[in-house]
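pinning this so it doesn't scroll away 📌
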Amino acid sequence: MKHELEMTKPDYLIEDWPDKYNEFSWLEYVVSVPNSMFLVSTLKANGNANANLQSWGLLLGEEDEYWSLIAIKKGQHTYENILREREWCINYPSYKDYPKCFETIYSNGTSVDEIIKSGFEIEKSRTIKTPRIKESLINLECKLKWKKPLYDRSNWYLFAGKVTHVAIDDSIITSDPKERIKNLQLMYNIRGTVNPLNGDFYGPNSIGIIDTVVKIFEDDGQPKEWKRK
């Protein structure tokens, strides 16, 4: 059985912090599909590094074109930095560095280098001025191509950038997905889940990592289901 949901927020969904369902859609907490977490590094006007812990983004492309698509709220330091410098870097840290990742939320003054202040180490990029985060196991240097609002009245903007260089740590240079996921320990943002039928709220957001990779293909690349036919 499936429950069909209209797009209007039910009255019994109560915010556990002010303006929650204006800042984020109530469906963000009902659907609750985990998104991978990453740090967006940019340059402030004074040359200090900015670090934004994010989970609204994806990577996609074809042929030699590989692109980063991220959602940034208007007025944030990252928003202003990207418009000014027209570049950013996507950094994928592992779970062991999550305390440093969350420190970037609080160490965000204009005069502060947020990468260093949060306990990370800066690494020079190859194709952009914005620094990479050395501890991250994957870094993608990006140059802005376009931006547009999510919808007409939205405070959230989509930024599309072409990936101009990629750095991958030696520890995840393997074709075995189980070994790569084990070493990468990529974090996922798991929204505090809300029951859409009665408004029951499980609790605050949490983070998770993948600890199981299920093999659904044979060694020749064919799906197992096809093999059985």
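📌 and the second one:
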Amino acid sequence: MTVDDIYYILRLRSEVFVIEQNCIYQDIDKKDLEAIHVLIKEEDKLIGYARILKKGTSYEKYSSIGRVVVKKKERYKTIGKKLMQFSVKKCFELYPNDAIKISAQTYLKNFYVAQGFVYKGEDYLEDGIPHCAMYLDKP
């Protein structure tokens, strides 16, 4: 990745997770240093992003996909669906023996169910926003 890539990743995450969702939290963490970063660009501009984390980084028994984000004006164009499909495929390629666990914002539960994830447990607050744990076993 280039310095510009890193800048635009952090900018997009800040635009959505901090400003749009009005949530002050520490977005930049050491997990970024261990992550596989997935970028979607259109005409060289970043419009979507996710990060893939190996087992033991976020969850002891699961690999994970996180910080899934699509630029506001690009939503509802199936970019999020394509981003998740690619990220899931890549996660299983990299970590074929691991199921995937995500911490999904609750309002997106149906989106993740449509991607094959299963909701387990109860909703919880993460940084003041309702979230839920969701799991995906290798097909």
